[in-house]
Amino acid sequence: MADPQTPPIPAKSNPSWDRVLLARHPKRPHSLDYIQRLFTDFNEIHGDRFYADDHAMITGMAWFEERPVMVIAQQKGRDTKQKVFRNWGMPKPEGYRKAMRAMELAAKFSRPIISLIDTLGAYPGLDAEERGQAEAIAYNLREMSRLSVPVIAVVIGEGGSGGALGVAVGNRVYMLQNAWYSVISPESCAAIIYRDSARAPEAAAALKITAPDLLKLGLIDGIVPEPGEGAHTDPDAAAEAVRTTLRASLAELSGLTPKQLIDDRYNKFRKMGSFFKEQAMVSP
What pTM did the predictor assign? Predict the structure, then answer.
């Protein structure tokens, strides 16, 4: 029997998992909350002109501080009815095709693109696979790299795998302080590596999925600070922090030509994952 006078051993701190839980907080602001606070005259664009309108992906023209922009956003639901309607924020192929249709419109009319990312991942259902889920995401990756207008992506909550990357090939990629962005969710990683999804906190730490980790690795361009204990404590302040980041980024990118924007985006993603530098050969 343990000595009652012996203090309990404190649980090991896991900041990575703490941030994952904050990114999933039930009251955390979603894309529509930011759209309402950041943009004016938002006019939603529906449908992909091929199959259907995906409610997990929101697109539309709007104004950001007297400047016309195109907004691409992934939307979750709060109650059960909304979650079903939004498919838990997991877009299907028609969602990615709708997003690309909107981005092509933005390029045509020289409007910067602002993408708000918040998804556990692309929908993995049989119907999505039948309609070309992987192809739709791959097509977006290629075409986004060629867009002649500024593209700014902000991970506001969860940024899961190709489901997030399919609308995140931007000149600038930012993350909110308590968001996560990864090739796989902690639960899925734990199920594959440890054969136990309950070890998700351990996987989260190993994956390096938090904003500070990714900034250190050079995979994102900046961290948007959150108020208090998280964005859910003060959505208005969180939106203002995002506004400040968007304003500065748009000002920086506005001076670039279309070719410079394309080259900037290409070079940004081309160097990701390169941790070694070749040394020049020296003649004896």
Answer: 0.90
